[in-house]
């Protein structure tokens, strides 16, 4: 299955919280759901779990997620 990389704008405090949750094996549901919603918005269908990859160092800080998507099928 192909992966779609999603970057979500965030603030430093939220990004730190997401990273800490990830390190303890937990999930930040709001950002995970936002990444899945972005996949839908772009016209693709999520096929698997949304995986937290990390954060950017720039301003604004961005949360990075990889989402498995179904291949486009045309008839």
Task: Furnish the topology, listing elements before pairings.
Elements: E1 3-9, H1 12-23, H2 29-41, E2 46-55, E3 62-69
Antiparallel strand pairs: 1-3, 2-3
Walk me through this protein's architecture.
This is DUF4258 domain-containing protein. The structure is a single chain. The chain has one domain (11-69). It is 33% helix and 33% strand. It is built from 2 helices and 3 strands. The radius of gyration is 13 Å and the shape is globular.
Describe the structure concisely.
This protein has one domain. Helices cover 33% and strands 33% of the residues. It is built from two helices and three strands, in the order βααββ.
Query: Percent of residues in beta strands?
Result: 25-35%
Work out the helicity level.
25-40%
Give helix and strand order, one letter per element, not per position. EHHEE
The gross shape turns out to be globular
Low-confidence stretches: none
What does the radius of gyration come to?
Answer: 13 Å
DSSP strand tally: 3
Q: State the helix count.
A: 2
Question: How does the helix and strand content classify structurally?
Answer: alpha+beta
Q: Give the tally of structural domains.
A: 1
Strand order across the biggest sheet? 1-3-2
Mean pLDDT: 93
| Euclidean distance between termini CA atoms | 19 Å
Main pleated sheet: 3 strands, antiparallel
Descriptive tags:
globular, 33% helix, DUF4258 domain-containing protein, alpha+beta, 3 strands
């Amino acid at each position: 299955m192909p992966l779609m990389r999603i970057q979500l704008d965030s603030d430093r405090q939220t990004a730190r919280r997401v990273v800490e949750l990830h390190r303890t094996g937990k999930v930040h549901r709001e950002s995970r759901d936002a990444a899945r919603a972005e996949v839908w918005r772009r016209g693709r269908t999520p096929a698997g779990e949304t995986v937290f990859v990390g954060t950017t160092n720039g301003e604004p800080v961005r949360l990075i997620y990889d989402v498995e998507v179904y291949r486009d099928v045309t008839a």
